[in-house]
């Protein structure tokens, strides 16, 4: 890197990387990641998922339209925050960037999608899902990690 270590610059580069990576991750899920995910779900799982998503949650305070509008904002905000955290850690530890960010993407999938999001009742638990149904979400997080690292490295070399 050759540049002096700076947590602030690391955070900024990581946040920009996280924003870009969130967009790339969404494109992956809408394109190449969509086919394996849909192929893994049976018709019954699709019907159950549609019925569940149309039922209002007892604790919901937002309308369906508010949830649909707010979802992407929350996703991008979280992607930027996670990228900023990654960027700060990357300033002082090369272990964090192992696998060109793919280790970070895998860890993010495991901690957030598998544990935290279901615990907060933001999405159903992944534990009951068949392994093929998890391939696309996992791969999307690997794409997120690699993209975050790619953008972070470029920006950090400029800062």
Describe this structure in words.
By secondary structure, the chain is mostly helical. It has one domain. Residues 50-58 have low confidence and may be disordered. 73% of the residues lie in helices and 0% in strands. The chain has helices spanning 7-30, 34-40, 43-54, 64-90, 102-119, 131-158. The protein is globular and about 45 Å long.
Write the layout of secondary structure elements.
Blueprint: H1 7-30, H2 34-40, H3 43-54, H4 64-90, H5 102-119, H6 131-158
Helix pairs in contact: 1-4, 1-6, 2-6, 5-6
Structure summary:
The chain is mainly alpha-helical and 159 residues long. It has six helices and no strands. The protein has helices spanning 7-30, 34-40, 43-54, 64-90, 102-119, 131-158.
Name the beta content range. under 5%
Quaternary structure? single chain
Count of DSSP strands: 0
Mean pLDDT: 81
Global Rg? 17 Å
Largest sheet: none
List keywords for this structure.
single chain, 159 residues, mainly alpha, 6 helices
């Amino acid at each position: 890197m050759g540049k002096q270590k700076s947590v602030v610059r690391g955070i900024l580069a990581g946040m920009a990387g996280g924003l870009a990576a969130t967009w790339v991750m969404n494109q992956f899920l809408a394109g190449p990641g969509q086919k394996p995910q849909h192929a893994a779900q049976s018709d019954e799982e699709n019907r159950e998922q549609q019925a569940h998503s149309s039922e209002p949650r007892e604790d919901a305070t937002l309308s369906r339209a508010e949830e649909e509008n707010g979802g992407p904002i929350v996703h991008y905000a979280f992607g930027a925050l996670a990228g900023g955290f990654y960027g700060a850690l990357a300033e002082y530890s090369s272990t964090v960037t192992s696998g060109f960010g793919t280790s970070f993407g895998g860890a993010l999938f495991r901690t957030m999608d598998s544990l935290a999001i279901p615990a907060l009742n933001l999405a159903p638990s992944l534990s009951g899902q068949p392994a093929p149904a998890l391939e696309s979400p996992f791969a999307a997080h690997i794409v997120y990690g690699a993209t975050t690292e790619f953008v972070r490295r470029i920006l950090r070399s400029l800062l």
